[in-house]
Design goal:
With 117 residues, the chain is of the alpha+beta class. It has one domain. The chain contains 2 helices and 5 strands, in the order αβββββα. A 5-stranded antiparallel sheet has the order 1-2-3-4-5. The longest helix has 21 residues. It is globular and about 60 Å long. It starts with 18 loop residues before the first helix and ends with a helix.
C-alpha cells in the first residue's frame, strides 16, 4: 500500500482561468441553454433526430436539423439565409413572416425561462 503524501497533485490549486476564457464558457453555456429551448418551438423532435434553433449573435440565427445548417442574417436591407454552403438569398413572403414569428417566440421563451424577464 502506498503512502499518502500531502503534497500530491490533488491539493494543487487549479490553473487560473482568464476572464476571456470564463466569458466564452458562460456564452457557450447560455447558447446551449437557449438552443435547448429553441428546439421546442417547432414541436417534438423525433427520436434519433437533432434540432437546434438559436441566436448566435445579435443579427445571426442558426437552424440546425439532422445535419442541415441554415444561417439567417438580419441586415439593414432585409433577412438573408444560407442553406449549407450555398450563397445567401433574401427571405421574403411567408417564409419571412415565419422567421419573424419564430424569433419573437424564441426571444419571449428564453427571456421568461432563462433570464426571468
Amino acid at each position: 500500500m502506498s503512502k499518502l503524501h500531502l503534497g500530491q497533485n490533488f491539493l494543487k490549486k487549479p490553473a487560473p482561468v482568464s476572464s476571456a476564457e470564463r466569458r466564452k464558457s458562460v456564452e457557450r453555456e447560455l447558447i446551449n441553454a437557449e438552443s435547448a429551448l429553441g428546439r421546442t418551438l417547432f414541436g417534438d423532435v423525433k427520436p434519433g433526430h437533432t434540432r437546434e434553433f438559436f441566436c448566435l449573435r445579435e443579427n445571426v440565427w442558426l437552424w440546425y436539423e439532422d445535419g442541415l445548417i441554415i444561417r439567417y442574417e438580419v441586415r439593414q436591407n432585409g433577412v438573408f439565409k444560407r442553406v449549407g454552403t450555398q450563397n445567401f438569398e433574401k427571405v421574403t413572403g411567408p417564409e419571412l413572416q415565419h422567421f419573424a414569428d419564430a424569433t419573437k417566440a424564441y426571444l419571449k421563451l428564453i427571456k421568461r425561462s432563462i433570464y426571468r424577464d
